[in-house]
């Protein structure tokens, strides 16, 4: 056996041989020359600092952004009833310029839900979409005051656009009104697709409309295409796609309705006594009763 080494003994290893040929030697010579001539530049390798999981990193960044956003803005409280059957039905507004098919869309939806033919679309129309859910449809007139009121009270907006003609000025005016009072959910309904002669033009138009609609609303906004009419109503399978989303859509609280009480009048009734009308004639003072749900905050 070899004698044990003491603490004073130091272990000596054989030194490595310096590289004299090959790629490593050439790189080392270039590095020494660049250091002597002061021309050394920092190397950039894009793969050296990449992430291991792109999807996870995107989610982490978005989560941090959402948390920072919550610190800046206090979330709005939802003043609607916790159960859908206890509160007023959500208001779905059908908006668009004249001649795009707003009345046809409401008649088609009422026919789908109730199996009844609607002759006129006057005023709010409330239908039962399920055992515990109701929806009120309202056609917005082509008037600035009416568009302003609808922009304040609508829970969901079905924005009707004539695909053959394109976006009109009334559509952009209504979008500006909604931005002022708290933007509700908006879904696009594109009609008159049966007027295109070739499938190529139809595909091109759909792509252009989708790009412009997503630019004005937000990327990923829902869009529905209605081709033709049968007996004054849209095709059943196209209407069904819209009703499936109406049944499970979630509405967001808006700024204006969280600070203002309002009543959407469903119907009105003349309660003047008939004897008074006979005595005084048509010029008598009449008493009219309005019926509707109180929405927003409580009436003072």
Task: Provide the fold topology.
Blueprint: H1 23-36, H2 54-72, E1 91-95, H3 102-114, E2 125-128, E3 134-139, H4 144-153, E4 156-162, H5 169-181, E5 185-191, H6 199-216, E6 223-225, E7 229-230, E8 233-234, H7 236-248, H8 255-259, E9 261-270, H9 274-280, E10 288-296
Parallel strand pairs: 1-3, 1-4, 4-5, 5-6
Antiparallel strand pairs: 2-3, 7-8, 9-10
Helix pairs in contact: 3-7, 4-5
Main attributes?
single chain; 300 residues; alpha/beta; six-stranded mixed β-sheet; two-stranded antiparallel sheet; 9 helices; 10 strands; 37% helix
What does this structure look like?
By secondary structure, the chain is an alpha/beta fold. Helix content is 37%, strand content 18%. The chain contains nine helices and ten strands. The protein has helices at 23-36, 54-72, 102-114, 144-153, 169-181, 199-216, 236-248, 255-259, 274-280, and strands at residues 91-95, 125-128, 134-139, 156-162, 185-191, 223-225, 229-230, 233-234, 261-270, 288-296. A six-stranded mixed β-sheet has the order 2-3-1-4-5-6, sandwiched between helices. It has a two-stranded antiparallel sheet with strand order 7-8. A two-stranded antiparallel sheet has the order 9-10. Helix 3 (102-114) packs across helix 7 (236-248) and helix 4 (144-153) packs across helix 5. The longest helix has 19 residues, at 54-72. The protein starts with 22 loop residues before the first helix and ends with a strand.
